[in-house]
Amino acid sequence: MYVVVVYDTLAARNPKILRTCRKYLHHVQRSVFEGHLSDAQLRRFHNAVETVLDLAYDSVLVYTFPPGAVPQRLEWGAVEPAPTDVL
Amino acid sequence: MPAAARTYWLTSPCRIRRKDESLIIERDNAANVHIPVTDVRDIVACAETDLNTAVISLLNRHRVNVHFLSYYGDYAGSLLTSDTSTSGETVAAQARTAGDPHASVAIARSIVDACAFNVRRVVDRKLLARPYTVLRESIEDSTSQAQLMGAEGTFRRSAWEVIDTKLPDWLQLNGRSRRPPRNAGNAFISYVNGITYARVLTAVRLTPLHSGIAFLHGTMERQRHSLVLDLSEMFKPLMAERLLLRMASRNQLKEHHFDRDTNQAMLSDTGRKLVVQTIRDEFAVTVTHRTLARNVAYDELLYLDALALTRHCLEGTPYKPFRIWW
């Protein structure tokens, strides 16, 4: 399924969560990630993120889209190029 | 094939490095790109690529194969992860089937037939009707792999000639030539064949089959994935010939997509990017599978065919090589 992840964490923990997210998803904005994950991968990702977070202060939002759906996105400003598999 | 992971195509010279248990692609002329390892099914390196031990151990842990195409676009080799789906029983059954002259010639026959069927389907049904009947007759008469390959060669030659009539002058093949390809059309076909070969190798690695034990191509050759040569035979027309004819008729291929010398040709940088993108999209195209009753991507067809062969060796289910059914 397609997943968009947004996080809001204490600045000191940002690099840690960034590294964890990079393992599973494409970095599209400072604290926004997106990409395809299987159910198992999502669960693994969830566990990995949980060990990094302070659940009393930080928050992570995960938007999931039903299988086959890819959200359209409109872009403004200096947007990073969309993730591609031809490099 | 396992979902939720993609094939990555590297079309410009780059270095793959490991960073934070994940991959980072460094290029001279563009910004670094982070790739999530979990998103990688395999990598096709179409341009010069550097990697080191740290990356290799990470790739191995995530079961990611890397295929390399050489400067001229022919298959240069692969970095294969250690076998995951080992099954001595399957390999023994495969070896028994390949060792039995009767059984292996039967498979080789069906492969040659399916390949010719696909070529005819893709190129021209009418003009190739006659060569196809001739081929089927000689298939019946053949008793060895060498005879079969010969018969296939004859059929292929008439197919190349028919293809030439549908191509603009500068793209015409004038006979198939390899290592190096002599003209633009041949360069294109070699390139696509190389990629198809790499994709089939990935598919075979997902099954317990041994990639060196083949039915049509010589089994005894060293350092060759002969089984992959066998299996890619049916898929080459689906990718190479069909894409060549389509891209030519749509005027997508231009002369600047090729670097041509007097006696050899290869894709230029822009050409390579265009071709790789086209193939990438083509592998994602889906068709409805009749027995599975669901949509299946071309990519998955390779895997299904390898599975069918596994089942044939293990259980004796009749093996019907892939034929274009749509």
List keywords for this structure.
heterodimer; A: 87 residues; alpha+beta; four-stranded antiparallel beta sheet; 2 helices; 4 strands; 29% helix; 26% strand; B: 326 residues; alpha/beta; four-stranded mixed beta sheet; 9 helices; 12 strands; globular
Protein architecture, described:
The complex is a heterodimer of chains A (87) and B (326). Chain A is α+β, with helices and mostly antiparallel strands. Chain A contains two helices and four strands, in the order βαββαβ. Chain A has helices at 14-24, 39-52; strands spanning 2-8, 26-29, 32-36, 59-65. In chain A, strands 2-3-1-4 form a four-stranded antiparallel sheet, covered by helices on one side. In chain A, strand 2 and strand 3 form a beta hairpin. In chain A, helix 1 packs antiparallel against helix 2 (39-52). Chain A is globular and about 35 Å long. With 326 residues, chain B is of the alpha/beta class. Chain B contains nine helices and twelve strands. In chain B, strand 7 (65-69) and strand 8 (75-79) form a beta hairpin. The longest helix of chain B is centred in the C-terminal third of the chain and has 24 residues, at 226-249. Chain B is globular. Classes of the chains: A alpha+beta (87), B alpha/beta (326). The interface between A and B is medium-sized, with 15 and 27 residues.
